[in-house]
Design a protein that fits this description.
The structure is a homodimer. The first copy, chain A, is α+β, with helices and mostly antiparallel strands. Chain A has five helices and twelve strands. Chain A has a domain of 172 residues: Aminohydrolase, N-terminal nucleophile (Ntn) domain (Glutamine Phosphoribosylpyrophosphate, subunit 1, domain 1, 4-Layer Sandwich). Helix content of chain A is 33%, strand content 26%. In chain A, the strands form three sheets. Chain A has a five-stranded antiparallel sheet, with helices on one face. In chain A, helix 1 packs across helix 2. Chain A is globular, with a radius of gyration of 20 Å. Chains A, B: This is Peptidase. Chains A, B: InterPro entries: Ntn_hydrolases_N, UCP009120_prtse. Chains A, B: It comes from Methylobacterium radiodurans.
């Protein structure tokens, strides 16, 4: 499994991704799922992946080497796409190309072709954008009403995002909530695990402000997990006893 | 969709179930999913259901009218089962019987035969028990290490259960956490909704202590939702800013 979340708030873009891949519970590895395609001062682009590892790696390689054009047009690299929308379209084309190559083999082996990607960033003067790209190569864009998108094992970590993230949320608060959302997911699904990759890009900066791997045992994240657990326990204790049933005996 | 949670703690058993059923988003109804089979002073039994409504209703009717025995033995009603284990087995038999009747029609219409049940309670002097019964009629039992079981849309509401419920948790705290878990689920999945049915049985009492429907607008639950949201917001605000990236500008 995998869990990645992208948050596009007023001040910029945050992505948080785990690194655990598994083929069964007895075959667990660490692979980077959060990638960057940057030309500082010109563009900043982040791409997080979930799904079949062979598919996601092939798509990434195509995006680095160049996705062949249709009708014999020259290949285009992701860093050459003129706008974020055309970059998302290019990623969709890369997915369809990998599918065309793998289709027969996957069907013969009864393997599901699965991939989903979070793609966000900014090119030049155009707005910062965040997309979720599906297996078919189609995609949706993040809105200011719900300024986050998730891929992979997304349900455990969604309640805190639904409650705590608004478009106006501070950039590093968004990172914090992303980490809390990741923590909730890791607690409930063994297929999502440390280390974590995080990235932050401030709107207009056209460069990464944070590009960091959180390893197991890192003090801040350990402290965040402890504080969050303690706060949840305190929060439910502070809610009054349900008024149903007999009144509790006096102590 | 559906979400039901059962909590078996030191002092007794709690169940919380929503009531929303839907065949598509444009066909939403309210159906009771939490049922009781009680003989006060002799036994208390709760049964919560998720899955195909026609299947769950047929299973419930069989359990009320009597599940035909194998090899021509007389039918047995759920309230006649001598132990909780044999009662769970009887429910499994009822599921297999409904499947045998519906199999051909479901296959012809390409409908999936799906049902899952939470079944908990106590008979006479035997221990209080809680089971999760699957579509195949097999079942697992709740343990003291993780003193809850869930059916239906279970992921959104699991992080709070993982953190806040222990076997030693007070009975009405368990109810409270069950309601918080339900709230998290309702916020993230429109297929789970009010009103809610709740039931509480104290260990050894052999009768329901609470049997209540929480309607939309009920003050306590509304207040719980507000308090929980406020506490979550306060909780993540109290966590320090992530130490990555440049220090924030002085204000």
């Amino acid at each position: 499994m995998t869990y990645c979340v992208g948050l596009l708030v007023e001040d910029g873009l945050v992505m948080v991704a785990d690194t655990r891949t598994n083929a069964g519970l007895d075959d667990i590895s660490t692979y980077r799922k959060l990638h960057h395609f940057n030309v500082p001062g010109e563009r900043v682009m982040m791409l997080a992946s979930a799904g079949n590892l062979s598919v996601t790696q092939s798509v990434l390689s195509l995006l680095s080497e160049g996705v062949p054009g249709e009708d014999g047009e020259p290949a285009t690299k992701l860093v050459e796409a003129p706008t974020m929308f055309q970059a998302a379209q290019l990623i969709g084309r890369a997915i369809r190309r990998v599918r065309a190559i793998e289709k027969a083999g996957f069907e013969a082996a009864q393997i599901r072709f699965s991939i989903s990607l979070l793609f966000g960033g900014q090119i030049g003067d155009e707005p910062m954008r965040l997309f979720l790209i599906y297996s078919a190569g189609n995609f949706i864009e993040c809105s200011t009403d719900a300024p986050f998108l998730q891929i992979g094992e997304h349900k455990y970590g969604k309640p805190i995002l639904d409650r705590a993230v608004k478009f106006e949320t501070d950039l590093y608060d968004a990172l914090k909530v992303g980490l809390v959302s990741m923590d909730s997911t890791m607690r409930s699904n063994l297929g999502v695990g440390l280390p974590l990759d995080i990235a932050v890009a401030r709107r207009g900066a056209l460069a990464l402000e944070v590009n960091h791997r959180i390893e197991a045992g890192e003090t801040y994240f350990h402290d965040l997990r402890e504080r969050w657990s303690a706060a949840l326990r305190a929060a439910h204790r502070a809610i009054p006893r349900p008024p149903y049933g007999p009144a509790p005996a006096a102590k």
